[in-house]
Amino acid sequence: MRAIKNTYDLIHSMTSSQKRYFKRYMQLYSNGQKEIVLIFDVLNKHKMLEESVISTELKQQKVKHPSVKLRYLFETILDCLVAYEVHSKNVEAKIDRLTRHARILLKKGFYQKSLDYIQKAKTDAYKHEKFDMLISILEQEHEILAFGYNYRNNTDTINDLLIEKAGLIEKMLNFNEYTQLNNKVVNIRYQQKDYKTAIRKTLKTNELLQKEENCLSVTGKYKYYNILVNAHYELEEWEKALELLEQQIELQYNHIEIFNQERFAASINNLLILCIQLKDKSRFFKHLTIINKILTDSKQDSDAAFLFYIKSHNLLKYYVLCEKSEDALSMLEDIEKGLETYGNYFQTRSKLVLAFYQLNMCICYKEHDKMLDYLVVMEEHLKNTDSSEEYIMAKLMSIVGHIELRNKSIVESQIRALKYFLSKEENKEVNTVFMKLLIKHLGKINKRVIFNKPQLLEECLDEMKEELSKHQDKQAVAVLGTFDFYKWVESLCEDQTVAEIRWQNNLIIREEAAE
Questions:
Q1: Residue ranges with strand state E in 74-125
Q2: By C-alpha distance, which of 349, 425, 414 is closest to 386?
Q3: pTM
């Protein structure tokens, strides 16, 4: 039943405070409709989505026409979340509330009071650079001034308002130009063969990119840095991209009232990923310190949860890809404690990604005792994902984990499940030759690993590298970039951890560079 899944997903995306607010909302605005609250409680208590079990329980509770009532519950929750935003610290909701109050006061003839509310809304909108809302606010202010009791004396004020509106439109047009240019730079790679030359020409000739002063707003400056970061990233000028990312983050940090925490965290996430790619340890941990400071000062659990997620999965990636440390596994316990604090604010995808990298860490350091726990957690979260890419990567990691644990029959079962998933018509695009070959070789490794003969595994590794190298595509790059299957098989051959193999390779590279 689609209605069950939609409503279930919406309920489980709500925070604890939003769920509490829903109960109060139902008592205040819906005459305490007990049956709707009952359906909410049934869906909320199930940690995993099992439609048949939920449907049976609704029948046992004598809920009539469950599909209709589930859809009604879905709409009611949305109305509740709108009301919740109005009473929260959401800037857009606060401004919208002020303008609605001003509109009501105008209709009732309270002109000066209506103007007071509009001025408050305008102050907040300018402070947070909500230009799209400002246009509507200025039009509403014009209406009050033009039709209020003192309209004959408002001519000069109205003229000033029209000049203000023209300046605002100029800022909006400037911001739109930067947005269009950003889209152009991002898409150049896919539209032109010699995309690097095209990007360099854009950087050199486009007037908007010659100096920061061309930006007429702080949000325009954010887009300016976005364009430059994307351009230098596409040009593979990683150090320059990293430097610009730091400037963009500093801009956001200095204007935190304009940029919400989620966008700020997303920028730091991009910087941490680039630091991992460049193995820039000092800058990586410098910005982790910034995250830790914000986490200490943060009073909004939802914002803190997102930052904690950014910090945690990037730390896991860093120690998997860049370090060999005896203390690395201790962070798994720290993340578990954080999940107890912030878990209710995480989306399903965040929980899945964290479980994926926690399992990745256990495989990298051969921490077999914890591996099975994360395999179970990942499989539970996987039931609620709609992303074929996430499903495939999680299944591949599950196969690797069970090969590590020598669970031969489970691996065979997982391979069959993955092949069945790929055979579906809707997954045709991801059922590539590369994927078929990778699954084939994982099956071979599963059969050979139990013999404990390194020579057999080395032969398998050579065959795997040779065949997969012939079918490199976007999917191959994404899969091998997320988990290094080659070094993992090498670790099986050498009876070492993946971290040790990677560390030895890094030492060899550094020694060759020194020579």
A1: none
A2: 349
A3: 0.73
